[in-house]
Amino acid sequence: MPNVKHQKWWGWGEENVFFTWENKPAFAPLVKRAVGIDLRPRQRDTVDFATADVPGSQISDDDLQALREIVGATHTVLDDELRIVHWAGKSVTDIIKTLQNRFERVPDAVVYPGSEDEVQALVKAAVERDLVLIPFGGGSSISRSLQPRPEETRTVVSVNLGRLNQVLEIDEVSGLARIQAGVLGPDMEEQLNGRGWTLGHFPDSFNHSTLGGWAATRSSGMQSDKYGDIADIIRGMNAVRPGGVVKLRPLPSTSTGPSLREMFIGSEGRLGIITELWVQVHRIAEHREVIAYMFPTWQQGLTAMRLIHEAEVHTTFARISDARETEFSLATQKAPTSLKKTVAAKGQDALWAVMRRRGWDTSAMCIAYVCFEGAKDDVARKKKVVAGIVKKQGALTLGSGPGALYDQKKFDTPYLRDFLLEQGVIGDVSETAAPWARLTTVHKNVYEAAQSAFDELGKTGWIMSHMSHSYHSGACLYFTFAFEFTEDVDREYALVKTRIQQAFIDAGGTLSHHHGVGAEHSPWMEQDVSPEGVELMRGLFRTADPGENFNPGKVLDSPDTLFKVLGSEGSGQEQ
Amino acid sequence: MPNVKHQKWWGWGEENVFFTWENKPAFAPLVKRAVGIDLRPRQRDTVDFATADVPGSQISDDDLQALREIVGATHTVLDDELRIVHWAGKSVTDIIKTLQNRFERVPDAVVYPGSEDEVQALVKAAVERDLVLIPFGGGSSISRSLQPRPEETRTVVSVNLGRLNQVLEIDEVSGLARIQAGVLGPDMEEQLNGRGWTLGHFPDSFNHSTLGGWAATRSSGMQSDKYGDIADIIRGMNAVRPGGVVKLRPLPSTSTGPSLREMFIGSEGRLGIITELWVQVHRIAEHREVIAYMFPTWQQGLTAMRLIHEAEVHTTFARISDARETEFSLATQKAPTSLKKTVAAKGQDALWAVMRRRGWDTSAMCIAYVCFEGAKDDVARKKKVVAGIVKKQGALTLGSGPGALYDQKKFDTPYLRDFLLEQGVIGDVSETAAPWARLTTVHKNVYEAAQSAFDELGKTGWIMSHMSHSYHSGACLYFTFAFEFTEDVDREYALVKTRIQQAFIDAGGTLSHHHGVGAEHSPWMEQDVSPEGVELMRGLFRTADPGENFNPGKVLDSPDTLFKVLGSEGSGQEQ
């Protein structure tokens, strides 16, 4: 078995990591109120792979032999469990289908190339033998970027790049590193940190996603305010195509026509396979603080976030949870287990009392976290500017205690989703970006859209949101929604998800700020980039891949699984 | 005649604006030493258009009628002078050919559409009638982006967008403006400034270039450190194609697959015609200062510029001239004409004396300008950080006097080129970007490459450079070169230019940081973005424009006029 780290086959992340609610006294009551269920103790520690009913590999001996000749027998895998690990990403519907034994088209083989030359040979073989290749990073996609098309009749090969996991060189003067595409976040940071550097790119999926995956799906990390989206971070790359390797040298900026770099970023495997990248790296910041602030209302908090960016404070991140997410966040606090924590909890109670005395509606208050990095005096100066801005918007500074908590918990959320699934509850996310002037409307309309779906389904549903990723002209709004599902889960999910996505577009937001398109969001591409824009992009894919050998059906022309289940009840969108 | 501002037909900019050397005592001696000629008084105030021998329009009555029906008779122009204004950009070879009556393929008509609908009708007519359309902004291209292919036999129509010159709306909350593509820099800034806003984009061509032109050629303004390259500034756009309008809504960031926005930016008309843009606009800075510093050496200055960026000072620009350009800059100072200026000049002499006492080789010293914007205390703080950095690199702070001078002179340089042409001297520019670690080598190698060409031509030649446009990972190096030309000017120019361009690429730089590709730089595309990258881009152009109706021969597959003239003496590069 190849020496590559995989996620568990039946859910997010690693075995034996669980979300626990028993030590969080406010959590069960919130869930009861939010989605109407009584939480039960967790039953599921793991799922026996023997329960999986896996469609057999359809690979021919001849194709198998060809793959083995390219990557070696050890790195050509037909094993059922690994094929299931590679059959999909980790969207909530992927996991439900997996748990319910509703596999669609499962890859016939998984290969683990050990060099760019091997990737080149695989890509050539794909064209010669009419195979379908799907590049696989950490498998964390929640936009269905990794599934073969259900109707695919040709041999499907998942190309796991996990062996290409080295930081190859660091240009310490220019702050550039050349890194192989298959490296997982923690492995990469460890290699960089060892030499005093960091990429500064920390998406929620960080522990289980790769640099190449971030590139191919237009990822953005929680610290993008300082370190940039992945498109800013990437300065050059190698991408393997049937005709050869597209080599984009590391350049701070260039005027060489339409940007090939920006074509490969977000291409989700449709233009070829990215094998290595030149990326901007930064010296690890001398000093770092995350400060929490509490705002009396969402609107004041949102205004403060905008003004912080406008004031050119250059924070590392600035995010604010709306009232619902604030409530949720507080409900996931652990009960105090030590004297120190009891004192802290009493401090918190005292704070709430202060707020009530000030006339706050504590059910409307919103928590914000702002991260500052730099030299100590620089951090102090930035904090002061931010303190002035938030004060004018009525906020109280909570200090660095909750901020430190935020920093520790940031990658844990997806495990909660798996826990909820066992409880019969879907918890999922949808995110967008929009100009500052439209954020309030987007937020309001998405709430209404989700509620309309919940009402239609006769369910008690939950939605909450935060704003993060500030830009000159706008920001990201990130929504989490939840509801109890039934046997009719496909239709239930499709209704809620499509209503939310449509609300994004109708209010001037984009179909996704940083989760990519995959098959999940492709129904909105025409509305987002216009029909003529889709036509031009389709032309690019056709000219780049006339035989549809490279992850076909992603970004554009995807098999529809959302509107199709809705049938005539759908929102009437053109596919 | 359409109410649109044009540049003069025989050179840069406006009639009756001239470079004058008689009041600059150090200038003539420098020119003598640099290129070996004795300056004569300017003879040429203008050039009579009657001396131009203009190829006639080849448009058919039928095509002419069709154009008139779309844009109206007033806005369909066959006038010879306007056809010559639109036949080329303003590269030095364009101007030489124009002055020498060596016109190649001149557009058969110039049209001035007044709306996006008219542009749409033109684009459709181009496909139906097999016309060639070349979008025309301010006509300032120095990369041959505007010439028809010399061998073009079809009807060629230059599409001047000058009537589309309005700021249509400003979203004051999001800092976004929707602006028509044909607006000239000063006209746009006037409209924005009137409402308290600025784009902050000031390329050298600012007075004679348009927003759409900046988009189509991947422009960068001198204040890009703060305001971004044009690709950062543009957040959405309308681009007209035969099948309809690609509409990209204004978004701070998005995850919608390969970036269509970044495909149109730099597309030089090959994917369609850009009609309007959503751009980031900024409140006019409260306070602005440009401070000059003098460094003992180029290397120390370059290091300081890098450290300023690394320290996250967030300057508006930071540029440093090398020793040659510093000398040139000082040589264009006017003789003092008032007591105040005499005192200032004496102050300067005193400063030189200080430097000599410190042991500086004054022929090696390099002048830098750093621009600070913001609230007064913010500017003061930034200045202090920069003062600390430059001091460690041995620099003296010259203060804001020379800085103010720089701010005033910034758009005047191209007139110098026209003046030199009359003196028989080519003065031209070539610029690149490269990682910080490579800048010293690029600089050194370009000097050697230019010298090798001068030697080969048996000429006294001149080259000088500055660094500007800082990024995390590198910066732009901008070179100006000059030599006396003969009747063999095509070969002389080609030799010097190709040697410089090749030195860029060989040392890890790009073929251009912000002048676009056009036909001039296309021979280096394969070396810059790799042969397979070119192949992919070629596929995009073919799928977008199978009939080659939209500015064919730009960016890729351009008619070769550099290596062809060099023949076997060329650098042996693949075309």
Automatic annotation (TrEMBL), chains A, B:
* Chain residues that bind substrate: 417
Name the PROSITE patterns on file.
FAD_PCMH (PS51387)
Query: What cofactor(s) does the depicted protein rely on?
Result: FAD
Instruction: Write out the residues that bind FAD.
Output: 135-141, 204-210, 217-220, 268-274
Q: Where is this site: Important for enzyme activity?
A: 319
Q: Where is the FAD-binding PCMH-type domain?
A: 103-284
* UniProt keyword list: FAD, Flavoprotein, Oxidoreductase
Q: What would you give as a GO molecular function for this chain, any one?
A: oxidoreductase activity
Q: Which SUPFAM superfamilies match?
A: FAD-binding/transporter-associated domain-like, FAD-linked oxidases, C-terminal domain
Q: Which GO terms describe its biological process?
A: lipid biosynthetic process
One Pfam family in the UniProt entry: FAD-oxidase_C
Q: Which positions are catalytic residues?
A: 478 (proton donor/acceptor)
The record's annotation in InterPro entries points to: Alkyl-DHAP_Synthase (IPR025650), FAD-bd_oxidored_4_C (IPR004113), FAD-bd_PCMH (IPR016166), FAD-bd_PCMH-like_sf (IPR036318), FAD-bd_PCMH_sub1 (IPR016167), FAD-bd_PCMH_sub2 (IPR016169), FAD-linked_Oxase-like_C (IPR016164), Oxid_FAD_bind_N (IPR006094)
**Record flagged with keyword Phosphoprotein:** no
Q: Which family does it belong to?
A: Belongs to the FAD-binding oxidoreductase/transferase type 4 family.
Q: What is this protein called?
A: FAD-binding oxidoreductase
- Species this protein is from: Kocuria coralli
